[in-house]
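Let's study my pick:
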Amino acid sequence: MSENKIEAFVGAVVIVAAISFGVFAAQSTGLGIGVGQSNYVLTASFRSLEGVGTGTDVRLAGVKIGTVTAVTLNPETYRAETDLTLGSGVEIPDDSAVVISSEGLLGGNFVEIMPGGSPFYFASGDQIEDTQSAVSLTTLLLKFVSGGNSE
């Protein structure tokens, strides 16, 4: 009989560990954003989204405030159209810029919002016009090696 209690206890521990892992994974990947709160979506168009895809962090002042939820190619402009899903707790001024930033030389890329000073804020569905694409590390290295001459 005591063997059944031990098996039940071990089973309960395994279930609790699995649930804890699931919650941690959801929060780490951004799926936890919006639990108990509403979200809003902003769109942005980039010349290059190198290193950014669905699930990439959206940060403001280094703090994760959302995720990239969709990436599509506009066949008319040949630009990458993105949907940025942000938590409703953060209002973004309507003159803000969106920049593709890098976590370091070997780190991944993320989307960074550079807030403006406008007293007006973006509403859900608005498009951010001021965008800066990813800087290609290969291009920068080639310019450095060649001496930066464009002639």
